[in-house]
Amino acid sequence: MAEEQPHDTLFKETFSSPENAASHLRTLLPSALVQRVDWSSLTSVSTEFLVKELDTVQADVLLRARLVDGRECYVYVLFEHQSSEDAMMAFRVLRYVVCIWADYLKQNPKAKGLPAVIPCVLYHGPRPWKAATEVADLIDLDGATREALGPFLPSLSFQLDDLRAQSAEQIQQRTASALVRLALLALRDAFETGSPLGFLRFRDLVTEALEAPSGPDALATLLCYLFKVGDPDPEKVKGFLIEQAGEKGERAYMTAAERLTKDAAEKAAKKGRAEGEAKGLAKALLIQLEMKFKPLPEATVATVQAATDDQLTDWIARAVAAETLDDVFA
Description:
Elements: H1 6-15, H2 18-28, H3 31-34, E1 37-45, H4 48-54, E2 60-67, E3 72-80, H5 89-107, E4 116-123, H6 143-149, E5 159-162, H7 168-172, H8 178-193, H9 203-211, H10 215-229, H11 234-245, H12 247-275, H13 277-293, H14 298-305, H15 309-319, H16 325-329
Parallel strand pairs: 3-4, 4-5
Antiparallel strand pairs: 1-2, 2-3
Helix pairs in contact: 1-8, 1-10, 4-5, 8-9, 8-10, 9-10, 10-12, 11-12, 12-13, 13-15
């Protein structure tokens, strides 16, 4: 299975939260539809059956909710981050909707009807979306034949959220949660500038996100994304967060550093089985130290590269709370 990309990870970790998803969808979907959904009932549903059925890995989120009349519905959100839009996206969405219905009937064999499925596509490619959003528009017909076949053509469209067609200020002004808006801003800027750091200029949003329940942990997810797809100065990011929110900002930064270290260690360990365990651990430690104490003295790099497995494991553990390089190697 292909390794999940940083864009996918940020999308899934942000929108798998029913609270975040609801705050986003309520600003995206038509108001008449928003009023028909009981958003307090929104829950996340596994999409593993889609992977098995379609033999593909998608960055997607499936949620279930009740309508105000008591009926059940699903909201399916697909994240599209290719460099250009998929001309067959409407057909892909149709396949996913059919699979959702098939799984529903499998789970409810006595059902006499199908639940509504609301398909949405979040896109952050480098150019505005131009492909069809309606399945019927993909069918190659002349005008007269299309009109004659009207009742027989499939009708399914998806709600498109094209981040490239919106300014950063427009996204910032949405009524979604602060964390959702920051994630959307980071995704929007990723292709535009090569580094999704533009969101940092929205200081009030950062402060609001950190003040929310589990704010530091949630913002740490976004910080991990920043360091994976860009090359920000760790000290500037840390200083900005402390200036904005004090201890909560610092905690968000340290949580992100721990997660990145763990990710790097796991990846390095896998690679290290072929290259040697010590080399993999050394790489993980150097990444961790560079985040906290950039730039590293050449002597420090040489010390790490010459260390034993036991030393590296001990230093990795110490580096999490260390305030200086001396604390790591004491």
